[in-house]
Design goal:
By secondary structure, the protein is of the alpha/beta class. It contains two helices and seven strands, in the order E-H-E-E-E-H-E-E-E. It is globular and about 35 Å long. The termini are far apart.
Length: 121
């Protein structure tokens, strides 16, 4: 039997590809990969690439995108990211706290996904 090794790529489907790509670049601080497929923007996150992509489903068919899925991004300084997110006016789902994964908080992105940022890898 072939073994599954683990998550190798993560992407979220978004309504406006360039708006979301700009948010994750300008506010969150991710760097675009040198090449992406035409329907996506891939970022140079490590060890698992993360992307935003055009939808393959009707995103307006639900009021809770990503409900039940947890996406965490590792940052060098979660407080600096928190400051940029709040300055950009994005809702904070979980205020910063110190936990087993370092300083942690969660925000709501432009499409309504809740994303967690932490700074202890």
């Amino acid at each position: 039997m072939t073994d599954v090794k683990g998550i190798d790529f993560a992407a979220i489907q978004v309504r406006d590809l360039e708006k979301s790509a700009a948010f994750y670049t300008d506010v969150i601080g991710l760097t675009r990969a040198p090449a992406s497929p035409p329907e996506a923007v891939v970022f140079t996150t490590r060890p698992i690439p993360f992307a935003v992509r055009t939808p393959v489903v009707d995103l307006d068919a639900t009021d809770k995108l990503g409900w039940g899925v947890a996406l965490w991004l590792l940052a060098d300084d979660s407080e600096a990211v928190y400051a940029r997110v709040t300055k950009a006016g994005r809702p904070i789902a979980v205020e910063p706290f110190d936990g087993p994964f370092g300083r942690t908080f969660a925000f709501v992105d432009p499409d309504g996904y809740t994303i967690t940022i932490h700074d202890k890898g």
